[in-house]
């Protein structure tokens, strides 16, 4: 081919492959970035837990219900049901709000618990938007990642209770 030859057209199938690849790559890159952020937060919390003014937070029981809701939502998105996934994801956020308010009413207002759960909730909100506006395959990867991240957080909360 000489420099003046036109660039061959990309077939529609190749374009679709490229869109899927870019979408998956973007989601995986986001998941790696979020993992690094939560790793840094975990390191800071471990370092800070040695201080004399460390606040031990009791685990609100709604967190166990939220975990089941998130599992159900992950199941729904695996079955490609956007509506149920969004409804259950929203219920998860409502449960988180209940947990925050119950801890606040118990006088616990400064704790890494809030940092972890609010940061996770912000990413859940992002996941809910993703379910509405991006390919379901990419949204599904991200949502399963958030479910796995929640399991990690529950283990941390269990250890630090």
Structural commentary:
There is one protein chain. With 161 residues, the protein is mainly alpha-helical. It has one domain: Four Helix Bundle (Hemerythrin (Met), subunit A) (Up-down Bundle). It has helices spanning 12-48, 62-78, 82-105, 112-133, 136-160. Helix 2 (62-78) packs antiparallel against helix 3, helix 2 (62-78) packs antiparallel against helix 5 and helix 4 packs antiparallel against helix 5 (136-160). The longest helix has 37 residues, at 12-48. It is globular and about 60 Å long. The termini are far apart.
What is the count of β-strands?
0
Query: Fraction of residues in helices?
Result: over 70%
Going by CATH, the homologous superfamily would be Cytochrome c oxidase, subunit III, four-helix bundle
CATH class: Mainly Alpha
Cα-to-Cα separation, first versus last residue: 68 Å
- Average pLDDT figure: 86
What is the CATH architecture annotation?
Up-down Bundle
Q: Low-confidence parts, pLDDT < 50 over ≥5 residues?
A: none
CATH third-level topology = Four Helix Bundle (Hemerythrin (Met), subunit A)
Categorize the overall geometry.
Answer: globular
Count of discrete structural domains: 1
